[in-house]
Design brief:
The protein is of the alpha+beta class and 179 residues long. The chain has a domain at 65-177: Sandwich (Immunoglobulin-like). It is 25% helix and 32% strand. The protein contains three helices and eight strands. The protein has helices at 2-20, 31-49, 53-58; strands at 81-85, 91-92, 96-102, 109-115, 121-128, 137-143, 151-160, 167-177. The radius of gyration is 22 Å and the shape is extended. The model is unreliable at 20-24, 50-69 and 71-76 (pLDDT under 50).
Length: 179
């Protein structure tokens, strides 16, 4: 009888214990590693879309080609906004090309902003996601800015809520701004 009671308790408590088990957060990725992986994945996606896989395997790329990002939900499916270009740590001059891929937003609109080392906004421009409404897609925009001397800066891409004007998603890269 005691065994049956114990078995019944185990059967009743097991689902409760399984549901309340503390989740272990995933390890925090190294930003430098993430940037390199994002660049490599974007280049691989570009090469695969052009049918040049043999070239990519035969010789490593010696320079980063200019490209237009293409929709690929499998690469950055966890990121609402992925910035492919410029990469984190890049040295940029005006105008800088900002390219990436984003989840659908209100009217497929994004905002690209460049800030200097003090956080002062140097440029703010709109960008459009090049995909049908409600679909993830690429974005590309050239942004002009002016700085007096070389300094650290940040390029941010975000979407704005149509309801209250608040930020809904934000992605950014740290860069060096050159005059």
């Amino acid at each position: 009888m005691a065994r049956k009671l114990l078995a019944l308790l185990v059967l009743l408590l097991f689902p409760i214990l399984a549901c309340t088990r503390a989740a272990v957060p995933p390890p925090t990725p190294n930003p430098a590693t993430v940037a390199v992986e994002q660049t490599n994945m974007a280049l691989l996606s570009l090469l695969l879309s052009r049918g040049q896989t043999e070239t990519a395997q035969a010789s490593p790329a010696t320079s980063t080609p200019a490209f237009t990002p293409e929709p690929s939900a499998t690469i950055f499916e966890d990121e609402a906004i992925a910035i492919f270009e410029p990469g984190s740590g890049s040295i940029v001059t005006s105008p800088v090309r900002v390219a990436g891929e984003a989840d659908p937003t209100f009217e497929q609109s994004l905002v690209v902003q460049i800030a200097d080392e003090s956080g002062a906004v140097l440029a703010t421009v709109p960008a459009q996601i090049a995909a049908d409404l409600g679909h993830r897609g690429p974005f590309v925009v050239d942004v002009s800015f002016t700085v007096a001397a070389e300094q650290p800066g940040r390029i941010s891409v975000f979407s704005v809520s149509a309801r209250d004007g608040g930020l809904t998603h934000l992605s950014s890269v740290e860069v060096t701004l050159k005059p």
